[in-house]
């Protein structure tokens, strides 16, 4: 609970700097390219993991955006390269700063296990965030968001020595359903 | 703004959910039976084929063959040339028996049951000591782990091999199950007490039945035959593999030596002697002042020794190893009237003249190499041999001309 409170406080702190700026009106274009560099922090189940991702996508009328993204992130059992699709809805499309909600979903490609078995399988991930975005110049902005991330992943636990010692089958599968609180800071370009 | 807060609240709520972790694997999955049904499940059925024999018992003209963890075959052996199956007593989890008078004692998984066999064609359950072996569970497929057991669902009476998916969220690194077996294997000697093979964990001495269950010795007072009364069990610090009752003493074959207990106080036997050997399996039989112990290696037996040890027990508190003779892979053994039989695994059944115990291993009389012998009861010139493929009987009235009598399958 303390971590949650800390993340909310951090989110508000970062955004409060931009709330203080003078409100500007942005021109609404039909379609714009948007890119973002995201740093994420996920917590829950007694652990803390970080992520670094980049997204590229399209912004429609300053209202909706869809992006595809990839990067690197960790969870309980492995370090993964996520491939995801993200959609955002911006509540205010005429201002440089706006609250938004986002959803994302994608595939987790393991790139290294964390000592769990010999074979970690690819998994799926999905999440939803609430955040605040502020463009402090025409093309560069910052966003902070807080939300939920779900990941499903499994690994095979392999006992190569089983035939001589353990009466266990070589492969056993462990399936993880992970629920995390995620805080994300994004540097946005358009 | 309200929607935004609601959305954020849902996100926070979801993220506060605990992780779920499941362990999915092929395992021995428990088959349950409720206690009431279990305690009424003993039935006498039509004769059936012997498939997994683990113990033999002879009482009078009848033979009793233990079908591992399943029941007992009743056989009329009044004519050893032509034994006749009488029926099959289905007893869940039965691994050993002993008989005194008209009463057969068997383990029924967690219970000890008393069966009246005065009418051999119609055995009846007449007594039951409940929950004497509370940790007793059947064996499953040893190549697979055991799935978690939910004791609220009833008693585990068996296992089926299937893929299981268990919630291990609370202990994801716990490699499960931890089921440890305290199996009782097989079934003792003396007037109207019948004769058992040497590989048994049941023994009757006078009014006491002794059952070895894991590391625990359970003495039962059977002075009232149908109401066995359990005396406090006590722990043996070794892996006991066989019990042999002899002259108010219990000889225990353990994986690391032979132990001798005095039953002067039958409810609480006292260890009076021991002799150690390297770790191996070793049933024991006794005749006169000598104990004969076979030591072997095997799947569950460690060590690299296969031999017959002859031990002088004239001083029970200080047994002395007198001689050892190399064997192939000796299992059970039996002795009567100076004729020593050794079930030497793949090497078959070997018959020795033990007139001179100290040289018995050099006095091989005959070998029956065509059978994989496991255990034996030599009695009244008939040797009843438990082999891998059935029960064989031999007439050894003339030790120089032992005759095959019959085979029971």
Please characterize this protein's 3D structure.
The complex is a heterodimer of chains A (190) and B (409). The radius of gyration of chain A is 20 Å and the shape is elongated. With 190 residues, chain A is mainly β. Chain A has one helix at residues 2-19; strands at residues 31-44, 47-60, 64-74, 78-90, 97-113, 119-120, 123-135, 140-158, 171-189. Chain A contains one helix and nine strands, in the order αβββββββββ. The longest helix of chain A is centred in the first third of the chain and has 18 residues, at 2-19. The two termini of chain A are 36 Å apart. Residues 161-166 of chain A have low confidence and may be disordered. Chain A has an eight-stranded antiparallel beta barrel. By secondary structure, chain B is mostly beta strands. Chain B has two helices and 34 strands. In chain B, the strands form eight sheets. In chain B, strands 2-6-5-4-3-13 form a six-stranded antiparallel sheet, with no helix packed on it. In chain B, strands 14, 15, 16, 17 and 18 form a five-stranded antiparallel sheet that branches. A four-stranded antiparallel sheet of chain B has the order 7-8-9-10, with no helix packed on it. Chain B starts with a helix and ends with a strand. Chains A and B meet through strand 7, strand 8 and strand 9 of A and helix 1 and strand 1 of B. Strand 9 (171-189) of chain A pairs antiparallel with strand 1 (20-33) of chain B, so a sheet runs across the interface.
Lay out the secondary structure.
The complex is a heterodimer of chains A (190) and B (409).
Chain A: H1 2-19, E1 31-44, E2 47-60, E3 64-74, E4 78-90, E5 97-113, E6 119-120, E7 123-135, E8 140-158, E9 171-189
Antiparallel strand pairs in A: 1-2, 1-9, 2-3, 3-4, 4-5, 5-7, 6-8, 7-8, 8-9
Chain B: H1 2-15, E1 20-33, H2 35-38, E2 43-45, E3 53-59, E4 62-67, E5 71-76, E6 84-90, E7 97-100, E8 103-108, E9 111-116, E10 124-129, E11 145-146, E12 155-167, E13 195-196, E14 202-205, E15 208-213, E16 216-221, E17 229-230, E18 234-235, E19 240-246, E20 249-254, E21 257-262, E22 270-276, E23 284-287, E24 290-295, E25 307-312, E26 320-326, E27 333-336, E28 339-343, E29 349-353, E30 364-368, E31 373-379, E32 382-387, E33 390-395, E34 403-408
Parallel strand pairs in B: 1-11
Antiparallel strand pairs in B: 1-12, 2-6, 3-4, 3-13, 4-5, 5-6, 7-8, 8-9, 9-10, 14-15, 15-16, 16-17, 16-18, 19-20, 20-21, 21-22, 23-24, 24-25, 25-26, 27-28, 28-29, 29-30, 31-32, 32-33, 33-34
């Amino acid at each position: 609970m303390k971590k949650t409170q800390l993340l909310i406080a951090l989110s508000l702190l970062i955004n409060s700097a931009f709330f203080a700026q003078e409100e500007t009106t942005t021109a609404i274009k039909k379609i714009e390219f948007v890119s973002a560099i995201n740093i994420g922090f996920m917590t829950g189940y007694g652990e803390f993991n970080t992520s670094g991702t980049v997204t590229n996508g399209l912004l429609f009328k300053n209202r909706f955006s869809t992006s595809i993204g990839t990067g690197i992130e960790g969870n309980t059992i492995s370090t993964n390269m996520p491939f995801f699709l993200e959609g955002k809805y911006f509540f205010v499309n005429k201002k440089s700063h706006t609250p938004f909600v986002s959803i994302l979903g994608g595939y987790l490609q393991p790139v290294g296990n964390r000592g769990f078995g010999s074979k970690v399988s690819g998994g799926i991930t999905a999440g939803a965030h609430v955040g605040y975005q502020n463009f402090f110049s025409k093309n560069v902005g910052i966003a902070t968001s807080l939300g939920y991330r779900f990941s499903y992943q499994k690994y095979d636990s392999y006992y190569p020595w089983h035939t001589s010692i353990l009466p266990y089958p070589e492969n056993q599968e462990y399936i993880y359903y992970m629920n995390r609180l995620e805080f994300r800071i994004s540097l946005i370009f358009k | 703004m309200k929607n935004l807060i609601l959305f954020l609240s849902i996100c926070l709520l979801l993220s506060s959910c605990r992780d779920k972790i499941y362990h999915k694997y092929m395992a021995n999955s428990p088959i349950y039976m409720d206690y009431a049904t279990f305690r009424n499940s003993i039935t006498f059925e039509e004769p059936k084929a012997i498939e997994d024999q683990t113990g033999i018992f002879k009482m009078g003209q009848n033979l009793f063959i233990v079908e591992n963890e399943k029941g007992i075959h009743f056989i009329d052996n009044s004519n050893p040339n032509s034994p006749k199956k009488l029926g099959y007593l289905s007893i869940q989890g039965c691994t050993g028996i002993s008989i005194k008078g008209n009463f057969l004692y068997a383990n029924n998984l967690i219970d000890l049951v008393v069966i009246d066999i005065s009418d051999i064609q119609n055995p009846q359950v007449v007594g039951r000591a409940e929950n004497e072996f509370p940790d007793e569970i059947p064996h499953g497929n040893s190549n697979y782990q055991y799935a978690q057991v939910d004791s609220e669902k009833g008693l585990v009476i068996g296992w089926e091999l299937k893929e299981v998916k268990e919630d291990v969220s609370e202990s994801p690194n716990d490699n499960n199950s931890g089921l440890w077996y305290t199996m009782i294997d097989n079934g003792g000697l003396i007037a109207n007490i019948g004769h058992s093979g040497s590989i048994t964990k049941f023994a009757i001495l006078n009014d006491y039945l002794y059952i070895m269950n894991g590391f625990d010795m359970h003495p039962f007072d059977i002075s009232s035959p149908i109401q066995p009364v359990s005396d406090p069990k006590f722990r043996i610090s070794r892996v006991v593999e066989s019990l042999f009752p002899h002259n108010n003493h219990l000889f225990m074959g353990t994986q690391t030596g032979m132990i001798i207990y005095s039953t002067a106080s039958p409810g609480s036997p006292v260890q009076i002697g021991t002799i150690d050997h390297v770790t191996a399996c070793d049933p024991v039989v006794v005749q006169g002042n000598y104990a004969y112990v076979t030591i072997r290696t095997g799947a569950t037996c460690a060590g690299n020794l296969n031999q017959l040890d002859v031990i002088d027990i004239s001083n029970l508190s200080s047994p002395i190893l007198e001689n050892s003779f190399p064997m192939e892979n000796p299992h059970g053994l039996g002795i009567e009237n100076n004729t020593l039989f050794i079930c030497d695994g793949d090497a078959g059944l070997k018959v020795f003249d033990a007139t001179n115990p100290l040289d018995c291993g050099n006095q091989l009389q005959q070998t029956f190499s065509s059978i994989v012998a496991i255990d034996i009861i030599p009695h009244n010139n008939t040797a009843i041999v438990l082999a891998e493929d059935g029960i064989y009987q031999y007439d050894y009235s003339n030790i120089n001309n032992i005759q095959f009598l019959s085979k029971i399958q």
